Amino acid sequence: MVRQVLLVVLLSFSSLASAAIDTYQFKDDATRERFQSLSTELRCPKCQNQNIADSNSPIAKDLRDELYRMLENGADDEQVIDFMVTRYGEFVLYRPRMSEQTYLLWYGPAALLLIGVIVVLLISGKRKKTEPGKPDGNLSDAEKQRLDQILKQEQNK
Amino acid sequence: MRRLIVILPLVLFVALGLFLWNGIGKDTKTLPSPLIGKTVPEFSLSALLDEQKTITAADLKGRPALLNVWATWCPTCKQEHAQLNRMARDEGVTIYGVNYKDDRAKAKIWLDKYMNPYALNIYDPDGHLGLNLGVYGAPETFLLDAQGIIRYKHVGAIDQRVWGELRQKMKQLEVN
């Protein structure tokens, strides 16, 4: 009984959770797939944390229509991206393009990782040489004398 | 030298922290327009008040002006309308309107009711001009120079404060 009630409750919410639904007729499956992948990679300018496939805002609908129209007219991905970027800026791309402005974004994490690795290697290298408590086999004369003293004391006990 | 390298991550971390801290509280909703410095995209649409009359981008040239994207379904447009009226009436500002994804009859009634501050009104029912202008939420206002080049864009209502900024930018355009 509880299960059935739960099922009904969950089902009643499922319609709320679904994304924007349009009925586009595509000329072939390849175009449909390109539409789906492009619409999930383009960001809605109004509702900024959604892509245009998920958003219900009117502007996202307009952009989907435009995307559909362009793909049906045979535009390639590059043309679609250019179209969106010249109107709404780099912002609409979830994967920003490589440019002077985005070098830091693309290479920054790798550079930070590299710096971290170098620092770790340097520190651990230094440690190995001077690790305290480990004899390196080279005692000074004073140390040797002191060691002999200590050993003699131990024997005399 | 070694010591310097050891504290390098800390220095980088602090630098990154300051960089991110700097971003906190900044307006993230307003997108910079890639159209700034470019001419108004070509279009050929009918005038809102006169279906027979065609307006093109060339009609927007001649003097610095504001291009205001509005619609009757947009509550913020109503909010800024009185300000636009004051600007047009008291200061003689040239304001062109883009009636964006709207209904012609409704828009006409609206202008009759609340006064018409627009020197020209472009009727863009499909939102194509709006799309080409990168409009993502009405009202949006573009500042055009005499050659019809977009110099600045403001997203959201124009109030006294925003107009103060726009007026300064407009004056600079008139001097040049």
From TrEMBL, chain A:
Residue span(s) of domain CcmH/CycL/Ccl2/NrfF N-terminal: 8-151
GO cellular component, as recorded: plasma membrane
Chain segments carrying region Disordered: 127-157
Transmembrane segments: 104-124
GO molecular function: metal ion binding
Alphabetized InterPro entries for the sequence: C-type_cytochrome_biogenesis (IPR051263), CcmH/CycL/Ccl2/NrfF_N (IPR005616), CcmH/CycL/NrfF/Ccl2_sf (IPR038297)
CDD domains, sorted: CcmH_N (cd16378)
Compositional bias segments (type: Basic and acidic residues): 141-157
Signal peptide region: 1-19
Keywords: Cytochrome c-type biogenesis, Heme, Iron, Membrane, Metal-binding, Signal, Transmembrane, Transmembrane helix
PANTHER family, sorted: CYTOCHROME C-TYPE BIOGENESIS PROTEIN CCMH
Record protein name field: Cytochrome c-type biogenesis protein
Species the sequence originates in: Amphritea atlantica
